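Exercise 7. Given the components listed, write out the predicted structure of the assembled complex. Treat all entries as one system.
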Amino acid sequence: MSRPGSKKFAASHWMERLVPVVLVILVIGLAVSILIVLLS
Amino acid sequence: MHYISILSTIVSLTFAAAVFRRYRQRGGLHLLFWTIGLVLYGLGTLTEVIMLFTFNELALKIWYLSGAMLTAAWLGQGSVNLLVRKGGIARALNISLLIVSLVALLLIFFAPVTSAAASFNPGDPVSSQYKEILVRSGFITFLTIILNLYGTVTLVGGAIYSAFLFWRKKVLLNRMLGNILIAAGALMPAIGGSFLKAGLPDWLYLSEFLGAIVMYIGFVQATVPQSVQAAAVVSPGD
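Answer.
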């Protein structure tokens, strides 16, 4: 984890796994919302 | 559930005031565009509140113009000003958005309203009734789609891109988390539009409220003061 006030942070084990998954979910969400706009 | 628009209005206008305060302290066109986008967000939910009580043609038009057409695009333009380093491109897009917004304003304010307005039911969400009341030309629909596409891609895409940069460089954890929340919050009302098609218009209002809350938390998270700043990295916390 990051130290308060530090620029760099060291990701914990769970964060290493979770953040990429969250980013992929967001990209999928973006694609879905684009489809919704196009199909509306 | 559509009384939740009252809370959405309070949250979005408070959020707008916070962003504007930061703009006055630090400058930056991106903060000004976000402020305008959030005021439009608040205008959209405020006019929803007005039409909980009575039908008003002007309120309907402001609701459509701000909520359906301009909010996403102006918020996204803030991200463009933050992320696009070539000033000429950002400036050209700023001017284009301004012109398109003025065209949209004229088109909506001169758009006729049908006799269905007389049978408007304040008990039902405006989002489930406006199509029968407001006459929208093909060009208005086209502009609505283009503005929403542009806004969604730039706002959500920009926040995801920023979060990814912070993650890859492993810097500024608070800004990475803030950008993830901003992207998630912005997606909520965008996807909430599909609830309309599913016959659940009330859920659109819930998504607007949650979207405003989550984006606000993301903004606060991204702007937490840090003793060491990464000048080389851009983010909505700037």
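Discussion: Chain A touches chain B through 24 residues (CB under 8 Å). The two ends of chain A are 43 Å apart (CA to CA).
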